[in-house]
Write a structure and sequence with these properties.
67% helix; 4 strands; mainly alpha; 569 residues; two-stranded antiparallel ribbon; 16 helices
């Protein structure tokens, strides 16, 4: 549903900072390449019109990539079922085979035990693990811990954390919605205090222990201590010199929290998508296990001696490559589907003029993601998958420490190029969710709309994410300290209470990290919707414009905030 255009006087009051300007002056469009900040409205016809499109009006886009993804999935499952039906049952009993010189082949020794010879029989599942004395000792340690109160206390702490994670997320969302400035003002000093405290704690703890002092001499400890304090000092200095930006970002976070609070159903849908990905992965993993059982036992000669080895069928390595690529592509598609659903849901709320329920908005976004735009989602996921593979290759080359100035420059260039692709692809899927256009058309819209707003996009993306990281770190740390105190008071676990607190800290960090990721996606979506509003001269959400109008909108502008006239609608 397209946003209803406000009247000329409202648009003029919102963006016109010169009260003496003529009535014909128009809002500066973001898609314009004209140096004139107020081009004539007739020139806007050369740009693509951007507006939200409902599902009935959306044709299927990027169908070849939809077909290609479907073909990859069907081949992965078809050959997987074939691997199960064609498996060789002798795979687990290779150690019972010997080389028969008479027949020049391997024959089974019926008197030999399956587990003799240290072959695959040591590991019936074929994963290459063998038990030894250390494994038995570790098993005994686990049984010892399991027989005490540690596991019971740990399980209870994790269960309570899971139950409380929902209210904690809900409370944090309400605080960010209504008191985002106060939350940041409290969380930032606490986060700095936590970093200082952890730095001092490890130094003192290592100093009082003889074993640590032997491994880590005093000079190195002091060097690390000073280095960490320097890093903390740099962080504090950056916060102080850019505090005006932090204040604006707190308002942006408040707007994003308000948008997310009106679409709480996303917290139920997104985990279901993750569970669906796991369900999709399970059979493929099983297929990979059975694929290695496709082959035969053959004789191999080495240094004049013959012995029996397992030889896989020639198609198995190709299937491994196909299955792994399919899993990577599916993971990328799941990520893009999540971004698509978030963007589509929030965009409907932003451009909607009626009281449409969040459930209908989410249902419409899911229908678009797995319907007309699924080919676009697959295209975007394919690009992400390629970026992952190239980046992994570059990281592998860096670990090999290949010398040469050219290699270093090439790695820097590749990483920069891949980061640019990630950035462009991120906003491209936003435009695809809003407009229903094909990937290439959405990418063109992304480039044209953001090339005059690249600084503000980075501004919104970076600062808000850093502040959210600090907030969730503070909340998780406070919760973990409370768990440790309660565990010490209510049980006799002693030092093991710290392990319980650490486990709950990690669990809550995962939950709050998911919340922060969703909130960041909502903030990005609201920014894109605001940019579309400016381009069209609309004001769909006045409270959003009141905050986002303070963001810098041009690459040529200084990164400092420019004072603007207040919203007047």
């Amino acid at each position: 549903m397209a946003a209803t255009t406000t009247n000329d006087s409202e648009s003029s009051n919102l963006y016109d900072h010169n009260p003496s300007s003529s009535s014909s002056t128009q809002t500066q469009p973001l898609l314009s390449s004209s140096p004139d900040p107020y081009p004539d409205s007739s020139d806007q016809t050369q740009f693509l019109q951007i507006s939200y499109k409902n599902a009935p009006n959306r044709p299927f886009k990027d169908i070849p990539f939809l077909i290609l993804f479907t073909l990859f999935s069907l081949l992965a499952f078809a050959f997987g079922f074939f691997s199960i039906a064609n498996k060789n049952n002798n795979y687990d009993s290779i150690s019972s085979y010997y080389y028969n010189s008479t027949s020049s082949s391997c024959a089974k020794n019926s008197t030999s035990s399956i587990t003799d010879g240290g072959g695959v029989g040591d590991d019936p599942l074929g994963f290459g693990f063998a038990r030894d004395v250390d494994d038995d000792r570790n098993l005994g340690l686990l049984l010892f811990l399991g027989s005490g109160h540690f596991v019971k206390g740990l399980v209870w702490a994790l269960v309570v954390t899971v139950l409380l994670s929902g209210p904690i997320v809900w409370g944090l969302l309400l605080l960010l919605k209504r008191y985002s400035k106060q939350v940041v003002y409290v969380a930032v000093p606490l986060a700095i205090g936590i970093m200082v405290g952890v730095n001092v704690y490890w130094f003192v703890a290592c100093t009082v222990r003889d074993t640590c002092c032997e491994v880590f001499p005093l000079g190195y400890r002091v060097l690390v201590l000073v280095f960490v304090f320097v890093v903390i000092g740099i962080v504090v200095w950056v916060l102080v010199v850019s505090w005006d930006r932090v204040e604006l970002t707190t308002r942006v976070m408040g707007v994003g929290a308000d948008a997310l609070s009106r679409n709480l159903g996303l917290f139920g849908v997104l985990p279901v998508l993750a569970v669906g990905l796991v369900v999709y992965y399970v059979p493929i993993v099983v297929f990979l296990v059975f694929a290695r059982m496709n082959g035969k036992i053959v004789a191999k000669e080495e240094s004049g001696e013959y012995y029996c080895v397992w030889k896989r069928d020639s198609w198995v390595p190709a299937y491994y490559a196909l299955a792994i690529l399919t899993m990577l592509w599916t993971a990328a598609v799941a990520l893009e589907t999540k971004a698509y659903v978030i963007t589509g849901t929030v965009a409907q709320w932003y451009f909607s003029k009626d009281d449409e329920t969040a459930r209908r908005r989410i249902r419409s976004s899911l229908r678009n993601a797995f319907g007309p735009s699924f080919g676009t989602v697959c295209f975007s996921g394919l690009l992400i998958c390629v970026v992952w593979i190239i980046r992994a290759t570059v990281d592998c080359a860096r670990r090999e420490d290949i010398p040469g100035f050219f290699n270093a420059v090439l790695r820097c260039f590749v990483n920069t190029f891949l980061s640019a692709i990630d950035f462009l692809n991120k906003f491209t899927i936003n435009f695809a969710a809003i407009t229903g256009e094909a990937f290439c058309t959405s990418a063109r819209m992304t480039y044209e709309l953001l090339k005059r707003n690249l600084l503000s996009a980075v501004f919104v993306e970076t600062i808000s994410s850093r502040l959210l990281i600090g907030i969730i770190l503070v909340v998780s740390s406070i919760y973990a300290v409370a768990v440790c105190a309660i565990t010490n008071a209510a049980s006799d676990l002693g030092i093991y209470s710290y392990y319980v607190g650490l486990s709950t800290l990690l669990l809550l960090l995962v939950v709050l990290g998911f919340f922060a990721h969703v909130l960041n996606s909502v903030i990005d979506t609201v920014y894109v919707c605001y940019a579309i509003d400016r381009d069209r001269g609309d004001v769909s959400k006045p409270d959003v414009h009141e905050v986002y109008v303070n963001l810098p909108i041009s690459r040529s502008q200084r990164s400092s905030l420019i004072s603007r006239a207040p919203l007047n609608v």
